[in-house]
Structures are given as C-alpha cells and as structure tokens.
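Table 4 source record.
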Amino acid sequence: MYTTCSFLPTHTLLLHNAPTQPSRHTGGTLRVYTLTKAGTRLSLLHTTPVDGIPGALTPFKGRVLVGVDNTVRLYECGKRKLLRKSEYRKYVLGCE
C-alpha cells in the first residue's frame, strides 16, 4: 500500500507499506522523492524515520502534515531529512 503527497512542486512524499498488525509495529519511515528532469522517474531524496505508525498525509503551505499514531505533525523538507516543525498530541481518533 502506498500513500503519496506532493507538498512542493518538485517533491513527493511517499508512505510505504502500512502495517497490517499495528500492535506489533515499532515505527515507520517517510520517504521524499524528487522527479527527474524528464519527469518520468522518481529519485529518492531522503528517508526520515518516525517513532509511530504514519497514516495520513496532506500538503500544507509548502510543508506536509502527517498523522502519526494519535498525533499530527508538521514537517518541512530539509537537506538530509524532513524537519519536524510542530506537533499536536491531543488528536482524538474517531468520535463517540
């Protein structure tokens, strides 16, 4: 399973292989790809490890919002990895 999110004109974030048994999963990775000049292939720019299970991705003002377990994180693209700029931990999954 792949989830993609284009958050800059030349950058695409790819969420790869979501776990089927989340209770046994210890973390995941966010991979940022760039398009080649011809626009026909993706090239891996960098990989960022996260301590939970990343689920949802959405672009937000040139950055990317990522749902990781029960938190929402705002990342910015750095030279070697995604940089965590902000985090909201009181996110509630579902409703009663």
